[in-house]
Amino acid sequence: xxxxxxxxxxxxxxxxxxxxxxxxxxxxxxxxxxxxxxxxxxxxxxxxxxxxxxxxxxxxxxxxxxxxxxxxxxxxxxxxxxxxxxxxxxxxxxxxxxxxxxxxxxxxxxxxxxxxxxxxxxxxxxxxxxxxxxxxxxxxxxxxxxxxxxxxxxxxxxxxxxxxxxxxxxxxxxxxxxxxxxxxxxxxxxxxxxxxxxxxxxxxxxxxxxxxxxxxxxxxxxxxxxxxxxxxxxxxxxxxxxxxxxxxxxxxxxxxxxxxxxxxxxxxxxxxxxxxxxxxxxxxxxxxxxxxxxxxxxxxxxxxxxxxxxxxxxxxxxxxxxxxxx
Length: 326
Known about the structure:
The chain has about 325 residues and is of the alpha+beta class. Helix content is about 20%, strand content about 20%.
């Protein structure tokens, strides 16, 4: 049986013999502990802090680019304005003001464990008995799953490994295929089972704790080494773990499939936040990371998409998280 997510081969599906038992970790990760390897492989993510860009609050394309430390200006910015703003930029006044006013200072007081890859079709089917994917390949990420499907998978996986469930799901309405169409979901913050990452946890892991522009997404040429996206995916998902991992050993944080996060989609408050859990209510859930059909702009670590929790298409999958237990 395949143990996905830690394969270092390129261009072909990973085999059991090719999969190392432990992914390569940084010293900070090793200080937390060893990877978890039960139903899937999860790597430790150290506690820390970073600057999180509230993407939807940036007032203009130009401000967004300044905030991401990009030098190029949009075409609609007049030459006279470019010259003046570049002078301010050299003096660090406007640039620093935008960076400070348009970012959240996010702190995590506890480490956590995050799955080294997106949940595969084999893993999903082993837990739920179903595989709703459009591109049916065992080693590929599960897709065509709703947010409700993802949290129900987390609960079932927690049951299988005898952990406390992270979600209380009530008032359930199911469709003809048995999938949840509507429900009330309450997060059990003290539970030790599996859950979706919050978008703050997701972005922190994607950036590997850094607050600077991601080198991975700074050019489409570099992105091809790390992600399946519009220009190289051939309009399909691909087996997990074939591209390069990020510095914390996480594969496919960019591309392959969009990843459901736990949060409701909302405008995030600015300022310093500690262990954020997201809004208490909303109408849409958050997708992160871009997918096989996305262009380069969707791969910025701050990029996010709103979709209803019952939304289902071939672009959406997920990965899972567990709390750190001493």
